[in-house]
Amino acid sequence: MEYVFDFMRLLSGDRAGATRRGGSGRRPAPGVLLQLRLVFYGVLLGLMVPVIRQIDWAALVPPGLKVEWPSGFGIAWPAGHLRVPGGWSKAAGAAAADASSSANAAAAAASTTTGALATAAGVASAASTAAAAASALSGGKAVSARFTICGHAKRIDCMVDGDTFWMAGTKIRIADIDTPETHPPRCASEARAGKAATLEMQALLNAGPFTLVPIKRDVDRYGRKLRIVERDGKSLGEALVRTGLARRYGGGKRAPWCRTGWF
Prior knowledge:
It is built from 7 helices and 12 strands. It is an alpha+beta fold. α1 packs across α3. The chain is rod-shaped, with a radius of gyration of 46 Å.
């Protein structure tokens, strides 16, 4: 309190009394003039508070400087960050950090579980597809798929040309027909007929379930599975022969397609 009375004496103009020490320790009561001054300063401060509240202090802060208040006290600027935590903000910050850590752990666990389930589902699907393809290649069960035209991507279910296609990652050669070549064609007419035969066989395969009937030879010299493709006991290759886009083939040397009057 001694320093408070010194401050009040300074306000009243009694500089000598503010520096005196010793004696009985009793201090004279503040005068009327001092009390009026304190009242005046109090009123002045009360009038200034609304004005102070309306000032946009953010505009006065230099660019890049951030002051955090009242949650503790902190100053951030481009060179670094200074923070003095205090009061409830410290506990709240710790609680928020714990909550964030728990949420991140839960999200990581959920992601791991989802990834494991997706991987297991993918493995199960691949195993099921492989089993179905093996059954179809043995001629024991009808199979269906949606065939596209083969490109540069991995070949799963797609058409190479009119008599060769991929199914479930296995390359199959239709054993009872021969169609014009497309990789590469020997002439322009063969290229046109080869493209038409490819699209026609694609449509036939996509029309519904079919059966792959084995023949005496399982594979040819290129490693392709040799199968006759049937639907309801009828050869799809024979259907292509009737359109003029294929010819019957039973093995051996194949006649060329690029000759006058063939197409």
